[in-house]
Amino acid sequence: QVQLVESGGGWVQAGGSLRLSCAASGRTFRRYAMGWFRQAPGKEREFVAAISYRGGNRNYADSVKGRFAISRDNAKNTVYLQMNSLKPEDTAVYYCAGKDADYDIPYLYVANYDYWGQGTQVTVSS
Which of helix, strand or coil describes residue 5? Predict the structure, then answer.
């Protein structure tokens, strides 16, 4: 059973930065495509960023392009989300997701993913 544990959430003022981390159990992390999603109150879970299992391919939601960066360290079984220039509309619970990947591509949809973390709250005040 794969476990994903997020950390790094918190409260920040608009314009600030946070870095989220997601630590994965399991010896086959290097074969997992990874993604970050978020869910605000009353809204559906939405795609934020994704990275292929080799790390060479990334994809971002239009709303975060140029502000957020996803990366991974396969030696540490960890994926990161660096969030800069945060806005109040970025406030949400952020979830890490993993997928046993056959192809070295980023996956963009909730239904693509096999494993989910418990989520970490990010609050951006104006």
Answer: strand
